[in-house]
Write a structure and sequence with these properties.
31% of the residues lie in helices and 22% in strands. The protein contains 6 helices and 7 strands. It has a 4-stranded antiparallel sheet with strand order 2-3-7-6, with no helix packed on it. The protein has a 3-stranded mixed sheet with strand order 1-4-5. It is globular and about 55 Å long.
């Protein structure tokens, strides 16, 4: 039996549905016109003017960062149980999550940094992510192994002095195609000799880190969709990131 919706969520749902009626549904056609224009220009991976216009309206309506599971620096959180009905509404329009700063992979990346990051990492990466000023990427999947099982990960993360050296190939890297993606969370093996499920770690890697050998062409998915999904293929060979960056 499902739990009853809390008064907090009922109030948020009312505001969210009103926002959709006033700003999301009437602009669906405009969004796809923007995407079609970007494609005709030869680059679909551009920032949507519509989304940037709607973000301040969402913040003013108190519909911003609703995914946060607990308090962060005075900003109250919301439980997954309370968040689920909001996701159901946002899921009705595939691009709407970014309007409320509630789109993947940023939500999971922000939760990871909030829970495991240092205060310096939160200041540098989490705060601009929470403000919707930058975006992030999550690099787990690899072309040579079934990466949904993290024990198969082959990418290595090795400590050398004050740096981490990363070697590996990643593809279908969520968020990597966004022009505003500035930070990656990369999963790799840091301790191959440990028990199988304790070998992996994640590390924060700025996008402009030396040694990252660029991004391959965006990878397509065989689905009927008109909205670009920023999944890319990347190769890192002896990419080095400072020792202050481990996320976990």
């Amino acid at each position: 039996m499902f739990a009853e919706t809390s008064p907090k969520t009922l109030e948020l749902l009312q505001r969210l549905r009103q926002f959709f009626d006033e700003h999301i549904y009437p602009n669906e056609e405009r969004y796809y016109r923007e995407m079609d224009a970007f494609r005709r220009q030869g680059n679909a991976w551009q920032v949507s003017p519509l989304i940037e216009e709607l973000k301040p309206l969402a913040r003013a309506a108190g519909l911003w960062n609703m995914f946060l599971p607990h308090d962060h620096r005075g900003v109250p959180g919301i439980s997954n149980l309370d968040y689920a009905p909001l996701c159901e509404v946002m899921g009705r329009v595939s691009w709407s999550g970014e309007v409320f700063n509630c789109s993947a992979p940023d939500t999971g990346n922000m939760e990871t940094i909030e829970r495991y990051g240092t205060e310096a990492q939160k200041d540098q990466w989490l705060e601009p992510l929470l403000a919707g000023e930058i975006r992030s990427g999550f690099l787990m999947t690899e072309p040579a192994v079934a990466s949904s099982d993290a024990t198969n990960i082959q990418c290595t993360i090795r400590r050398e002095g004050d740096e981490y050296v990363i070697n590996g190939r990643k593809w279908f890297s969520s968020g990597a195609g966004s022009p505003r993606c500035t930070i990656f969370i990369i999963m790799g093996k840091t301790d191959p000799g440990a028990p199988r499920h304790a070998q992996q770690s994640m590390v924060l890697v700025p996008r402009d880190t030396a040694g990252r050998h660029g991004a391959a062409a965006p990878l397509g998915v065989r689905l009927r969709r008109r909205t670009p999904r920023p999944h890319g293929g990347l190769v890192g060979e002896r990419a080095r990131t400072g020792g202050q960056h481990p996320a976990r």
